[in-house]
Write a structure and sequence with these properties.
mainly alpha
């Protein structure tokens, strides 16, 4: 997958595909952020690394990683990248718990309008996470190959 962005969501099948990819990107981003953090902290025991990978939330990991990354004068990720990383959980949870409810129970033209509004949001979130996914993946590959 070189360019994971989507141009449009034209029907429910596209919508379902988009949601699946958002969940995929969120899982990969979370795993990569945790992996980067574990590689940055040389002193973690195996048990501590397991705790980070299996018990820490994405929000906690992002905050700890940001503190570490900014501890020198050359952070790998920008402030905007970290702000976006903090939004990943909200986007994922929205997809898992709310997005379908915006349009699925509407009828007729109301459903079409609600579907279009929800599709526009999903497309924006999808493309945002697609770019972040590649950025974080590159950071993981770069950082882990250097350490």
């Amino acid at each position: 997958m070189n360019d994971e962005t989507m141009e449009a969501i034209n029907n429910p099948d596209d919508y379902f595909f988009c949601i699946g990819r958002i969940i995929y990107f969120a899982q990969c981003i979370e795993n990569d952020v945790k992996t980067i953090y574990c590689h940055m902290v040389d002193s973690l025991t195996d048990e501590e690394e397991d705790e980070v990978m299996n018990e820490w939330t994405l929000g906690r990991t992002v905050k700890e990683l940001e503190d570490l990354d900014n501890s020198d004068s050359d952070p790998y990720l920008s402030d905007d990248d970290y702000k976006l990383l903090m939004k990943v959980t909200k986007i994922r949870n929205y997809c898992a718990h709310e997005c379908f409810l915006e349009w699925i129970y509407e009828i007729g033209t109301e459903q079409a309008s609600a579907f279009r509004q929800s599709s526009d949001r999903m497309l924006k979130d999808h493309n945002c996470l697609a770019r972040l996914y590649r950025l974080v993946e590159k950071a993981r590959i770069d950082y882990c190959s250097d350490s």
